[in-house]
Amino acid sequence: GFANIQPGEVVADFGSGGGIDLVLAAHKVGPTGKVIGIDFTPHMIERAKQVMGEAGLSDRAEFILVDIEDPQVPDNIADVVISNCVINLCPCKPCVYKQIFNILKPGGHLAISDIVIIGDVDPKVREYFQSIWAGCTGGAMPEDEYFKIVQEAGFGQLKVIARHILGPKELDEMASCPGKKFSPIFSEEKLAQMQGKIVSIKFTAVKAKE
To answer: Where is the Methyltransferase domain (predicted)?
Structure first.
C-alpha cells in the first residue's frame, strides 16, 4: 500500500476502529515490529483487540484510548502513522496533526486517507452539514485549508497519492454512515449541492530528521 510499511517498524493507526488496518499493518511489520491502535472509544479498542487475537497477532499490538477533542499520546513512538477517514471527524484538526507529528520519530512519515471539499460550496450548505454532523462528511473542510494544517504542524514533503471525487451513491453512503438508523436525517437537495465537491484523498508527508 501507499503507507510503505517496512518489516520491524512501529506503526500507529490513528482512529484504529475495528482493527482491520491494524491486522494488515501487523503482517507488514512482521514479528520484529509493532502496531499501536489509537482510538476514542473503549468499545472499538475491545473489538480491535479481539480481531488481532483472532488473527494470532496480539503479541504485536498495543492500544491507547484517547480523547477525540485532545488526543494525548507519547512522543517519538512510531515510524509510520496511518489513518483511514477518521481525522475529518475530529473537531480540532490542528490538535490531531500536532499529536501525530509528536508521535512520529524524526524521519518518520504519515499516510492518510481522508475526506475534503474542493471547489466552491455555498457556506450555508457547508454549515448545514457541519451542524448536523452528517456521517463522514460532517467535518470535511476545503483541501487547501486541510493541507495548510498538516504543513503548519511541521510536516514537509507532502504528496497527494490519489484523489477520488465521490459519486452520488458514495456521497449518500458517506453522509449516512454509520447507517441510516444512526445518522441524522439530511436534506437530499442540500446533498445534491455537494455533488462533485467531496473528495476522498490519500497523501503522505514526512517529519524531518532532526
So the answer is: 7-154
